[in-house]
Design goal:
Order of helices and strands of chain A: HEEEHHEHEEHEHEEEHHHEEHEHH
CATH class of the largest domain in chain A: Alpha Beta
Shape of chain A: globular
Number of helices of chain A: 12
CATH architecture of the largest domain in chain A: 3-Layer(aba) Sandwich
Helix content of chain A: 25-40%
Structural class of chain A: alpha/beta
Radius of gyration of chain A: 22 Å
Number of domains of chain A: 2
Oligomer: homodimer
CATH topology of the largest domain in chain A: Aspartate Aminotransferase, domain 2
Largest sheet of chain A: 7 strands, mixed
Strand order of the largest sheet of chain A: 4-10-9-8-7-5-6
Largest interface: A-B, 113 and 113 residues
Low-confidence stretches of chain A: none
Chain lengths: 431, 431
């Protein structure tokens, strides 16, 4: 593949951005062939800086729900932009949007808008502490809840005080959760949970109903707030909070990424049980009351309510899963596709350092399919059966190509270093 | 003034948003007549939900630098929007923007982009700790650096651990700063400073060069990072970091609000002295690499470099200051306008509970001029001499009206409660 312009951009970036790139969209922990820069996006496709097109199973790591530059959402955004965006006060669309969300999400009695996913998880933590007057917050080991000092997975620049009141339990293990709740004594403010286990590098797991119900019961018993962090999965599993699928309603839920189909918006939803605490916070941001992303969210939510975007995406996800599974079997690979089929992760058996997964992702990339070797992926509602057929055909060829060069594969040095740092931190922090 | 729709929106909001509104754009701590919701913005004007127009001296609390919906910036944003915004990787415009900033800001060797002002101040703190391996951070008492748990001015939901490693000094008092530095011993990571003292409720003050130079010397001596928080004032005082005006270059500077003329973007700039620390952080956000605000910033920065927007804004600010000063004198008011004239705060003598300031702001509002009674304001570069004439004429009438009803004024109960809470917190935190 052509990489001339990408290489030139990377070289320029290295001078004016630390390491040339940072954060979740850095390709340093990806196979060397992955392009860093993208020129253009439309529907389910992205074009790199050298003009090459990919069917994009990352969907901008979540924001792309309906398709890049969805005409309906973009028209709503453009209408609002012709009036005003960030002004000296919010637009009436903020009230419309809050009412819409309260109408759609069972547990929600109120909404507070912000920008980053981290804003909403941080606000949830503060609201729970303000509401309960207690301090300890429980998180599942290995779960991602943002990149502020209290939650970033790579704790450079973090001091022990940032996490002194956090405690950890094992996702889907009700006894582990209960033990952590008991250990918190009378000082438990909140229990955080992802809608499903969507940690990087490992098989995903849907929530065990027994665990989710125990979480609810323990919060009811202790007065702690139950927080479901929907930032990644919101409205990709259900048209309500994801835990409605297992019959559990949280007190707080955190949303972001796809809520305005790519426009910058996140929000915290809460029940009346946490209204006073949330209302006591002073939290804000320069662009939190911007009207354009809110208008885009109102239209995105209309499409969520009125179309079969969800059933369509699940059907395509199932079809992708079946097609790749059959192809992997034909070529003799143990290939694990876990998580909801519309938010899959794909991992190879007997691949502890991910060298096989990396090679397969590279082979997909050269065939015009962008897959991630260790992070959950996303299907977009604009994808078609033809897109899935193309991905499955590419997958079949990619399995064959990896099989042919399997003995020559070597581990990624970047990934090896990351894994070592991560396990060192995990040993220290979770000891 | 008509308030029917605003009242109806407020009543609806009260049901679906805690207290109906939150954060810096809430009008609860403003005079009762201030509208909460705005329908439209253009140039220097905003229209409330009841269709009434105001000349807006808040400029969205900063983001409006050139004029709402500036045609040049909006065209740049629209061009980029037709390509892509939030994608699976950044656009090449990120590199262009980083190069532009490094070219414009003397101390900057690199840039990292984010969304909120709080993102950039939080990243500065983490980068300084990562770079130095030290922990203590010095802040000026009363300065605003964002609304996360470590810095929000109203600490509901905050635990003592969030601020255990912060220490405070008096802005513009070099000896107070030096004492705080000495007290930090060998554990000082960073010294934060605003470009000028722009705290709420009090007279503003430009930086004393002796203080700024001492800050630099103390950081050089101890190895700590000097951080200038330009989020509010960036490119409103200079076409470089504001402290270039007093001949001091920081190691890190935090920018936001006006950098893309209203599009959501903030960033951290740093010198090579802090590149390794910044590069070690894992910080990120779903929309941090969005291309549209970056394209808007590139055009905003071009206008900053190539036009007299700054000199024009300062000239209008001076003219406003002179006109209001003369009017206040005519009516016998002690009226203090402090800070740079393009970012003024306006306070009355003998007005400890701000009842006079509130009344004057109300009288300005009914005359179509939106001023703030206790927060610094902002002029926009699109304002004209005619706008300023109108504001001065309204000011003259407003002084007369306040004089006529001065004996009937009462303090704002909301403000009184806020001041009590603030001084209680200040006593506890700064004891």
């Amino acid at each position: 593949m052509k990489r001339d312009r990408d290489r030139e951009l990377k070289a320029r970036a290295l001078k004016v951005i630390p390491n040339g790139m940072y954060g979740h969209e850095s390709v340093r922990p990806l196979p060397a062939g992955f392009p860093q820069f993208f020129e253009r996006a439309e529907g389910a496709y992205i074009w790199d800086a050298d003009g090459q097109r990919y069917l994009d199973f990352m969907c901008a790591y979540g924001p792309n729900l309906l398709g890049y530059r969805d005409a309906r959402v973009d028209a709503a955004a453009a209408r609002q932009a012709s009036l005003g965006d960030t002004m000296t006060g919010p637009s009436p669309v903020m009230v419309d949007l809050a009412e819409t969300l309260v109408g759609m999400v069972t547990h929600a009695d109120w909404a507070m808008f912000c920008k980053n996913g981290t804003d909403t998880t941080s606000m949830a933590m503060m609201a729970a502490r303000a509401q309960t007057g207690k301090r300890i917050v429980l998180l599942a080991k290995g779960a991602y809840h943002g990149a502020a000092a209290w939650c970033t997975p790579h704790p450079a620049g973090v001091v022990p005080e940032d996490r002194a009141l956090l405690r950890y339990y094992d996702y889907n293990d009700a006894d582990s959760l209960e033990a952590a709740v008991r250990a918190a004594g009378d000082d438990l403010a909140a229990v955080f949970a992802s809608p499903f286990k969507h940690d990087s590098f490992v098989d995903q797991a849907l929530p065990d109903p027994a665990y989710a119900h125990r979480a609810r019961a323990l919060c009811d018993e202790t007065g702690a707030m139950l927080v479901v962090d929907e930032v990644r999965a919101g409205f990709r599993l259900a048209r309500d909070c994801s835990w409605s699928l297992v019959g559990v309603q949280p007190d707080l839920s955190c949303w972001g990424k796809a809520m305005a189909n790519g426009q910058p918006l996140s929000f915290l939803l809460g029940s009346d049980r946490c209204r006073v605490g949330a209302g006591s916070l002073y939290v804000t941001g320069s662009f939190w009351f911007a009207a354009v992303p809110m208008a885009a969210a109102i239209e995105t939510l209309r499409i969520i309510r009125e179309t079969d975007y969800l059933e369509h995406t699940i059907r395509l996800g199932d079809r992708l899963r079946e097609g790749l599974s059959a192809a992997a079997m034909r070529h003799g690979f143990g290939f694990r596709q876990t998580g909801p089929s519309q938010m899959p992760i794909m991992l190879f058996d007997d691949d502890p350092d991910l060298r096989v997964g990396f090679a397969w992702a590279e082979e997909m990339l050269v065939r015009g399919i962008y897959v991630h070797p260790w992070h959950n992926m996303f299907l977009a509602a604009c994808m078609t059966d033809a897109d899935i057929d193309m991905a499955v055909a590419a997958g079949d060829e990619a399995f064959a190509a990896v099989k042919a060069r399997r003995d020559t594969l070597t581990p990624s040095p970047v990934l090896t270093a990351m894994a070592a740092a991560r396990s060192k931190y995990a040993r220290e922090a979770l000891a």
